[in-house]
Amino acid sequence: MASQANLQITDNRSCYNCGQQGYISRFCPLPDKRLNGGHASTSTALVQAQPLVTGPSNVQGVAVGGASYSNQPNGYSNKKYSLRNRVSTLKDIVGRIKTKHDADEAKELAAKQETERRNKEKEEDERRLKDTQEREEQHSRLSQELSKQWKKICEKIDKCDQEANELAKLREDVARLTRAKEVVTLVHPINVDTDTMSNLRSEQEEMRAAADRRFAVMEERISSLTKSKEAAEASAELWKAEALWSGNKRGSIVLETPTSHARSRLKGTPRQEASIPGPSSVRTSRRTNPALKGIVDRHNMEVNLLKEMRLKDANGRIEAEKEVEKLKAEMVRLEMGQRQKGTNLKKRLDEVAGASTCKPPCPSSKKKGTAVATEVNDRDALLQMEKKNLCRKNKEEVQQICREEGIPYTTLEPTKELIAARRVEKAFGVDDRHKGKEKSSSVIEVTGGDSDAVERDDDADVAVS
């Protein structure tokens, strides 16, 4: 009975307020007709509604969904079919609207891209035009500067030519006078003083030497001006080749020039087989500029010459330093030689005359010790100074000193010590502090007419006046 009752129930789940399927009047978004005087809504707009939740039935033969029955009335199926048609119609309308919207957006995007492309092309054209104008202005300015420099060079060359012409005229005058002098000498021999002739010849030689020097200076100036002209032309051609090079980054305008395409000196030559001439060898031969190569060669020659001159100056400075050191050593030796003690003549004469009532004072041992200590200090100071000077010298310099002073060379350090000892001996004499001190008798002769005392020692003879 219960199952039969369920099968006879009709699906009346439409909204009581608006009559649409899928929700009840509690969730209807339209105003309630009971509040508006009982007038039902005549709107045909579809309102999005949440489907009703249905649970499974315990009766066999009934569908799981709450709205799906095996035996549906015709009214419910018609309503469902009309709702499906309306949904499909709305989907078609929404699809067409979306398609039109997408097409409009695509048109707007294409128009925007076209505008950006046109603006970019316009900016690129303006930049190219600006670069072309700058390049033309720079080329004209460089041409003006080169023309000014060329005018100056031409003026200097003309001036040198005029001076050369004057020199040629002077030489012609000298030759003419010489020929006239020879003719006069042959026709009428004249007795001329030898001094006068020598003076005239010396003056003539001086004039000739001055003219030759002037001519040499002019030739040097002409050669220097020619070199500067060639360098200026080479730099101008190089700049032109760089500015008009097809691969320049400042623009894509390609201009052909009849001059060389070399931008700079090649740092290396690509290796290519001799039997198979490739494009690299052709490109290298085309990019090589003989004028620039000559300038580079002359620059290298100047650099090598400057290096040689610098080495010569360094060698001369080293020789001068050696001479200064020798002079310093000689001055020290002379200063040490001037410190020798004098001889007390009165004491010598008193000893010769005999005993006297006045006893001569005894020599102070303190003074003797002071003099000996001073000499020892001077000797040690000179020895240390010589060792210090020789310490900075190498083997070749020490061998040169040995050859000059006649000292045999053994090894470096002992030879330096021997040289220092020899120099000290030359300045102070042989050091006899470690030898035995023996007193030697001396004989003094005094003559009546002389005031000189001669002391003959066993070791050496010293004349004192």
Short description:
The protein contains 9 helices and 3 strands. The protein has 465 residues and is mostly helical.
What percent of the residues sit in helical stretches (DSSP H or I)? 55-70%
Number of domains: 3
Structural class per helix/strand content?
mainly alpha
* Low confidence ranges: 1-10, 49-75, 251-255, 266-285, 434-465
Order of helices and strands: HHHHHHHHHEEE
Distance N to C terminus: 178 Å
In DSSP terms, counting alpha (H) and pi (I) runs of 4 or more, how many helices?
9
Structure write-up:
The chain is mainly α and 465 residues long. It is 63% helix and 2% strand. The protein folds into 3 domains: 2-116, no CATH class; 117-258; 303-338 and 372-429, no CATH class. The chain has a 3-stranded antiparallel sheet, with helices on one face. A hairpin with a 4-residue loop joins strand 2 and strand 3 (461-464). Helix 2 (74-187) runs antiparallel to helix 3 (194-243), helix 5 packs across helix 9 and helix 7 runs antiparallel to helix 9 (412-428).
